[in-house]
Design goal:
CATH topology of the largest domain: Immunoglobulin-like
Number of strands: 13
Number of helices: 1
Helix content: 25-40%
Mean pLDDT: 80
Shape: globular
Strand content: 35-45%
CATH class of the largest domain: Mainly Beta
Number of domains: 2
CATH architecture of the largest domain: Sandwich
Structural class: alpha+beta
Radius of gyration: 39 Å
Amino acid sequence: MTRPLLAAQLALAAALLLACGGASRTTITTSPSTSPTTATSSPTSTTATAPATSSTPQGGIDTMAGAGTRPVHVTATNKQTALLTAVRAARHEGFDRVVFGFRNVLPGYDVRYVSRPIHQDPSGKTISIAGSHVVRIRMQNAFDADLTQPSAPATYTGPRRIRPGTPEIIELARTGGFEGVLTWAAGLQDRVDFRVIALNAPPRLVVDFRNH
């Protein structure tokens, strides 16, 4: 009786040991399956944040907000001829500025890039403009002499060609004045964005060209 009982106890102990060994193996096989899941999620998070960082504007505040290369046109509403008195150009931080000053009122205007050759108005004669690109500044119901006076005195007595020495503007040149249309051309170093600003008190037409 003692031997059968001893054999039964040994068999039970062996079964318990086998069960414990199986539980240990199960824990080892599930542990690696958790690690790859965590490793896979980390690169996905990094990739998602990269585009947001790269799309952030660089270089600080844009001093030429709203500028572009498309034509800018404003129809003339002034019945009185706008009389040009001054043409100035200077460099500013982020842009080169051209200012057309008038004695009385602002004219309508059309500012756009044009192709060569540049023709004088009204003669049609070809005019050379220094620079790689040309922007035409056409002002309507405007002139640089007062035709209401008997001798038609000039209201603008400055040079008709100006080399301002700014980064982008190589040359400014008067290219026409006929039947209420006054035209200047700006020869530029590059095809850059521009903007047009109309100011009063005194009347001024401002054209800014982005510089480097």
